[in-house]
């Protein structure tokens, strides 16, 4: 007898089988109402299973379907199963990602409203009569005839209007109907969309579009290898995306666009909106700050095929688009595609999988492709298309590397923030009324408080990191857990009053600039300054309008920004990211330098980049300086091959956490021992070690790295050991397949 295996909504991840009532079209992916104890609950059908007839008891039947169609498409359900087995997580956790909370709740579906429509204008005689006998009805008629679309929501007509409306309807003057309302996520702070039209493509772009189109037009049964679009900064990748998307829609198919983070890529989103202005209601933008109701609306619009082009970050990879024709993954190298909570999937990799399941075309675009994707092109698994020239015919900016060890000497041991060279360059730009961007790499580095007498550093009480000084509110703050502390007047350890600030942050840079460039208008972009809603957008608009001369910022300004009047980019501390314990450190530094440098000289005017560094000869700096991706990739891949790191092996992390240091350590040691016993061939197991960030949020952390050519055997082995091991209650163990964060 077939039964429905149902994952019950709620935190406890219960799964039960239910009998399917005669004639009810229940398939995997459906949402159902089910009896649970003596209540009615809801759940998602994971599977249709065959139950033996001699169960000894009969299954309770499920009540009904919440919607006639399955909410999760069969292909997405298949992708979900893959994720569960590949990343070693429960299918339940994956279903929760596939079907967000907001989408499951029926309460969010109150989206129908009664609307009153003016059917015909009363002739003057009738109107006079109504005005005299029923002034309320007359008022409603007047309101309607003056409204934009000759319609008004019944609720907006005020209390007690329904009787009047009813009688107007009887006279055939108005019509009342149910209207589906869409809560427009953009409604507040709305921006005017200026429609734009396709640009004539240059030869390189044309070639790239042709490759994408021939993949689009392949017969359904043909495999479509992913296409890596490697285009230097400003080469016009976005224009290629836009035209490919349009052609896909013309074929009657739908398009999914993934971007690293919506709030950090406002320009990309705006360009899609502008290009598809003629079909605005078919564009869905999945922001992370959508309300539950908005998320519900957008999701159902997508599922019903009303929104045919979806733009979103990582989790949008699960957008239930029917007839998917094209997936675009912009800035495919970005870390933010990796989810750092269960299920710990990589959005780009899931996109590639989804494309293969759906039989659609996928394009991964970047100016600095990940070595994983690049290696796939070398092995012939992916196709590669290149845009080597800037779209506007400009050359790539000239990059100068400045040795800051020499600058520091000039400053008598003190930390130089701004070299003379960079200061002069800034002054020149201001004199010419051109704009500059100053970039501060803050990874693993921030402004901390240190005692010069005894070396004491103010640390977070809960995490093994120094507290960061925030000038605006005169406080020390932990950037990991948010812990705050007052700034001590004397060293807490030796009582020396000379305790002072080490290093520098964006606030300090802004302060120094204000002194050095008194006439310049300076603005700062970082997580602190951008906490207010729309702050980033407003600031970028002001910069675009040239109301700001110098923009100072962190990682936030590295992404996809296009400002033609920017002719100078300064990178203040280029190599700081090199000193973190992560085999991708060099790759990240190369990417960051190339991306930031790429913000310069994107218009008529030539661009210059000044890179301040203490390690001028590091390969990441040198290859970035020469715009040499291939050179960088060749040398970096050699290193990865030699040490068996990705892309030549899968790399996973097993982490234990506890408030009890010893228990966290002991647990990981136990797991290490069991993993080493009868370990399948081809898996390299590292030693259990304290994490580089040994303590966060008051918890001690230990980690061990596992590597393997093949992913599945590794996941299976770890899952097997974890299932056999009883963990102490106060220890949490996390398995992260294809890990991207090693601190
Ligand atoms: N064929 C074209 N003719 C003229 N201008 C173009 C063409 N294609 C793109 N452009 C313009 O060139 C500029 C850079 O293009 P775009 O921002 O798409 O590059 P990109 O490759 O996405 O850059 P990045 O990776 O640096 O974000 C834009 O102003 C765009 O309008
Ligand atoms: Zn001291
Ligand atoms: Zn902390």
TrEMBL record:
GO MF annotations in UniProt: 3'-5' DNA helicase activity; ATP binding; DNA binding; hydrolase activity; zinc ion binding
Keyword Isomerase carried by entry: yes
Entry-linked Gene3D superfamilies: P-loop containing nucleotide triphosphate hydrolases (3.40.50.300), PriA, 3(prime) DNA-binding domain (3.40.1440.60)
Residues binding Zn(2+) 1, per UniProt: 451, 454, 491, 494
Residue ranges of domain Helicase C-terminal in the record: 486-640
Name of the top EC class for this enzyme: isomerase
Keywords assigned: ATP-binding, DNA replication, DNA-binding, Helicase, Hydrolase, Isomerase, Metal-binding, Nucleotide-binding, Primosome, Zinc
Pfam (any one): PriA_C
Reactions it catalyzes: ATP + H2O = ADP + phosphate + H(+); Couples ATP hydrolysis with the unwinding of duplex DNA by translocating in the 3'-5' direction
SMART domains in alphabetical order: DEXDc (SM00487), HELICc (SM00490)
Cofactor needs: Zn(2+)
The record's free-text note on cofactor binding: Binds 2 zinc ions per subunit.
Record-annotated Helicase ATP-binding domain positions: 218-387
Highest taxon of the lineage: Bacteria
Single GO biological process annotation from the record: DNA replication initiation
UniProt keyword Zinc-finger, yes or no: no
Enzyme Commission number: 5.6.2.4
Residue sites binding Zn(2+) 2 per the record: 460, 463, 478, 481
GO annotation, cellular component aspect: primosome complex
Subunit comment: Component of the replication restart primosome.
Function per UniProt: Initiates the restart of stalled replication forks, which reloads the replicative helicase on sites other than the origin of replication. Recognizes and binds to abandoned replication forks and remodels them to uncover a helicase loading site. Promotes assembly of the primosome at these replication forks.
HAMAP family found in the cross-reference section: PriA
Similarity field: Belongs to the helicase family. PriA subfamily.
Protein name: Replication restart protein PriA
Organism: Luteolibacter luteus
């Amino acid at each position: 007898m077939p039964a429905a295996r149902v994952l019950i909504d709620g935190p406890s991840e219960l799964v039960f089988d239910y009998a399917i009532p005669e004639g009810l079209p229940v398939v995997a992916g459906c949402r159902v109402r089910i009896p649970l104890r003596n209540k009615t609950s809801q759940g998602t059908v994971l599977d249709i299973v065959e139950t033996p007839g001699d169960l000894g008891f009969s299954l309770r039947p499920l009540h009904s379907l919440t919607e006639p169609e399955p909410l999760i498409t069969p292909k997405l359900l298949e992708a979900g199963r893959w994720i569960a087995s590949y990343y070693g997580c429960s299918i339940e956790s994956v279903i929760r990602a596939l079907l967000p909370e907001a989408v499951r709740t029926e309460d969010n579906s109150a989206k129908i409203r009664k609307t009153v429509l003016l059917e015909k204008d009363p002739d003057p005689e009738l109107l006079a009569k109504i005005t005299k006998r029923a002034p309320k009805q007359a008022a409603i008629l007047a309101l309607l005839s003056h409204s934009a679309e000759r319609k008004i929501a019944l609720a907006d007509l005020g209390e007690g209007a329904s009787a009047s409306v009813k009688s107007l309807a009887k006279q055939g003057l108005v019509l009342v109907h149910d209207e589906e309302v869409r809560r427009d996520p953009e409604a507040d702070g709305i921006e005017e969309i200026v429609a734009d039209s396709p640009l004539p493509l240059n030869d390189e772009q044309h070639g790239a579009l042709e490759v994408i189109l021939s993949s689009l037009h392949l017969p359904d049964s043909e495999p479509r290898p992913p296409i890596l679009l490697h285009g230097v900064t400003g080469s016009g990748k976005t224009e290629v995306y836009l035209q490919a998307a349009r052609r896909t829609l013309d074929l009657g198919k739908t398009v999914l666009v993934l971007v690293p983070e919506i709030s950090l890529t406002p320009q990309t989103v705006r360009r899609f909106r502008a290009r598809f202005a003629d079909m605005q209601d078919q564009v869905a933008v999945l922001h992370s700050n959508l309300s539950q109701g908005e998320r519900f609306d957008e999701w159902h619009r997508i599922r019903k095929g009303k929104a045919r082009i979806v733009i979103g970050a990582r989790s949008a990879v699960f957008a239930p688009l029917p007839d998917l024709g094209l997936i675009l993954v912009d800035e495919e190298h970005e870390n933010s595609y990796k989810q750092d909570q269960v299920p710990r999937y990589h959005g780009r990799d899931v996109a590639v999988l989804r494309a293969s399941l759906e039989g659609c075309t996928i394009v991964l675009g970047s100016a600095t492709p990940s070595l994983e994707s690049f290696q796939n092109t070398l092995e012939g698994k992916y196709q590669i298309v290149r845009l080597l020239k800037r779209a506007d015919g400009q050359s790539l900016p000239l990059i100068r590397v400045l040795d800051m060890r020499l600058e520091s000497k000039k400053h008598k041991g003190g930390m130089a923030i701004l070299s003379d060279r960079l200061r002069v360059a800034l002054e020149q730009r201001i004199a010419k009324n051109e704009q500059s961007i100053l970039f501060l790499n803050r990874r693993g580095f921030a402004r901390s408080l240190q005692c010069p007498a005894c070396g004491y550093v103010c640390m977070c009480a809960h995490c093994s990191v120094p507290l960061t000084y925030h000038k605006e509110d005169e406080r020390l703050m932990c950037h990991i857990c948010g812990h705050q502390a007052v700034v001590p007047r004397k060293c807490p350890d030796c009582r020396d009053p000379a305790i002072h600030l080490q290093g520098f942050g964006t606030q300090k840079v802004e302060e120094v600039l204000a002194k050095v460039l008194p006439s310049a208008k300076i603005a700062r972009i970082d997580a602190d300054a951008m906490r207010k809603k729309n702050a980033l957008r407003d600031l970028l608009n002001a910069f675009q309008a040239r109301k700001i001369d110098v923009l100072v910022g962190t990682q936030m300004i590295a992404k996809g920004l296009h400002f033609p009047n920017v002719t100078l980019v300064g990178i203040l501390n280029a190599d700081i990211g090199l000193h973190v314990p992560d085999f991708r450190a060099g790759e990240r530094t190369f990417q960051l330098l190339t991306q930031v440098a790429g913000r310069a000289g994107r218009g008529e005017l030539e661009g210059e980049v000044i890179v301040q560094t203490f390690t001028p000869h590091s390969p990441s700096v040198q290859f970035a300086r020469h715009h040499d991706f291939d050179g960088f990739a060749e040398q970096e891949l050699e290193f990865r091959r030699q040490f068996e790191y990705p892309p030549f092996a899968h790399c996973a992390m097993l982490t234990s956490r506890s408030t009890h240091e010893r228990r966290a350590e002991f647990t990981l040691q136990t797991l290490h021992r069991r993993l080493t016993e009868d370990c399948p061939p081809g898996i390299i197991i590292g030693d259990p070690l304290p994490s580089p960030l040994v303590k966060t949020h008051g918890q001690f952390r230990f980690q061990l790295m596992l590597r393997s050519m093949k992913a599945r055997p590794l996941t299976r082995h770890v899952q097997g050991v974890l299932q056999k091991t009883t963990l102490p209650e106060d220890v949490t163990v996390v398995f992260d397949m294809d890990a991207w964060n090693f601190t």
